[in-house]
Specification:
5 strands; binds flavin mononucleotide; NADH Oxidase; five-stranded antiparallel beta sheet; alpha+beta; globular
């Protein structure tokens, strides 16, 4: 698959099974993330990986946060089980560094680009996944549970694994609806 084919056919897959990427293939995924655009070379990223039982520990962190927010028992249980939807979950955080020319937003955008690059590198190697967020990425107790600092910002959880379903027909989008040549 060449680069343009990958860009034009990128898609998510929420139904994922073992195996998750490992070894050199996983390393390639991280390296793709680390090629994200990065103003002032701040490398403002951290990828926190959960596989196997670590996913249960992540689930406990999410469930505790849900409970603390006063969510209903079903929602707490759903949060606890959320990381089990894929064999690997990667929490992607912007490790925001103080910089006079690079505000936090730019560093968060950079982390988002890293997440997407990792998803595409997974797809290019026969894996896939989905970028998920929800209120989890705005909850400070979840940041604490993951060992993140006060200035850090989760941008999402990349669920990764082997796709269980065929690619659905990708929606055709007409650039004319989204592009305007400034006059
Ligand atoms: C910042 C961000 C957060 C997202 N959070 C969720 C989420 O929590 N749950 C979800 O089902 N999709 C979420 N999505 C959307 C999916 O990642 C995916 O893009 C969507 O299902 C469309 O599928 P596609 O990527 O194949 O076009 C999020 C996307 C972005 C960019």
């Amino acid at each position: 698959m060449n680069a343009l084919e990958l860009l034009l056919n990128r898609h998510s897959c929420p139904r994922l099974a073992e195996p998750a990427p490992a070894g050199e293939q996983l390393d390639t995924i991280f390296k793709a993330g680390l090629r994200a655009p990065d103003h002032a070379t701040l490398t403002p990223w951290e990828f926190i990986v959960f596989t196997g039982e670590q996913r249960d520990r992540l689930g406990e962190i999410l469930a505790a946060a849900a409970e603390a927010r006063g969510e209903a028992p079903e929602a707490v249980d759903k949060a606890r089980k959320a990381p089990l939807r894929a064999p690997m979950v990667i929490a992607v955080a912007a490790k925001v560094k103080p910089h006079d020319k690079v505000p936090a937003l730019e560093q968060q955008l950079s982390a988002g680009c890293a997440l997407m690059a990792m998803q595409m590198a997974a797809q290019a190697q026969g894996f896939n996944g989905i970028w998920r967020s929800g209120w989890f990425i705005f909850d400070r107790s979840i940041h604490d549970g993951l060992g993140l600092d006060e200035q850090d910002q989760l941008v999402g959880f990349l669920y990764l694994g082997t796709p269980l379903v065929e690619v659905r027909k990708l929606p055709e989008r007409d650039p004319a609806q989204f592009v305007r040549y400034f006059e």
